[in-house]
Amino acid sequence: MTFFQAIIIAIVEGLTEFLPISSTGHMIIVSSILGISKDEFTKLFEVCIQLGAILAVVVLYWKKFFVFDKNRLNFYIKLAVAVIPALIMGYLFSDKIDQLLESPLTVGITLFLGGIILLFVDKWFQGGTITSENDVNIFTALRIGFYQCLALIPGVSRSAASIIGGMQQKLTRNAAAEFSFFLAVPTMAAATGYKLLKGHKLLLEHPESMKLLLVGNLVAFVVAMLAIKFFIGALKKYGFKMWGYYRIVVGAVIIAALLMGYSLEI
């Protein structure tokens, strides 16, 4: 992986991590288009640059994480409970997930089907009554955590799964989106930590790889800051339909390309 390729992948991560369009799916496709070999470092890089993206959440919502009051301990407990299902499922099926990460067809299908679902989400889950994370109880947080497990399949989108889960649990659209942002922090921190634990020897043996990782995280951080602000504004104004149409088009293009014999496999 070159510095140019690392920067492109990091931009894709920052743009798509918090949008309901699947950052993992987009990185798989862009990596294929750029001709990046799906070696162990690439797999590590695509997971670990999520650290830069989650730091954007911590910075933008720093009061939620660092201003300690009577609600803060409860906030941390809810996030800890909500992340448990993804941690367990991710650990149990890590090998299968790694295999799916190499499949553009899986990404195309899940993008397309998820796009259809997003066209109807606003109609299905109208009338949310929970307007703030403070009103989310532990059991609701856990149920949202189970929805997030769907995103272990590339192309589903962690953001989409957890936001839909939140809206199904009576959170308003904006409250569900913000809770999804908060839940991303422990979820992706755990995934990054696990990947670094498994791949730290690779980084130690190849110091230039560490430079790529640092640059990637910095780029992902800056781009994610902008993407989060954009998403909240677009969500208030347009809802989920625009993302649904986008997913359908991208998914259809990927499937059509594969059916016509274009090789996107890495």
Q: Note the gap between the termini.
A: 13 Å
Tell me how many strands there are.
0
The low-pLDDT segments are none
Topology pattern, helix = H, strand = E:
HHHHHHHHHHHHH
Helix content: over 70%
Q: Which percent range describes the beta-strand content? A: under 5%
Strand pairing plus helix content: what structural class?
Answer: mainly alpha
Number of helices: 13
What is the total domain count?
Answer: 1
Summarize it.
By secondary structure, this protein is an all-alpha fold. It has helices at 3-16, 23-34, 40-48, 50-60, 62-66, 72-92, 94-100, 104-124, 138-148, 158-168, 173-205, 207-238, 241-259.
Structure characterization notes:
- The chain is mostly helical.
- The chain has one domain.
- The chain contains 13 helices and no strands.
- Helix 2 runs antiparallel to helix 8 and helix 4 crosses helix 12.
- It is globular, with a radius of gyration of 18 Å.
Features:
266 residues, mainly alpha, 0% strand
Topology diagram in text:
Blueprint: H1 3-16, H2 23-34, H3 40-48, H4 50-60, H5 62-66, H6 72-92, H7 94-100, H8 104-124, H9 138-148, H10 158-168, H11 173-205, H12 207-238, H13 241-259
Helix pairs in contact: 1-2, 1-12, 2-8, 3-11, 4-11, 4-12, 6-9, 6-11, 8-13, 9-10, 10-11, 11-12
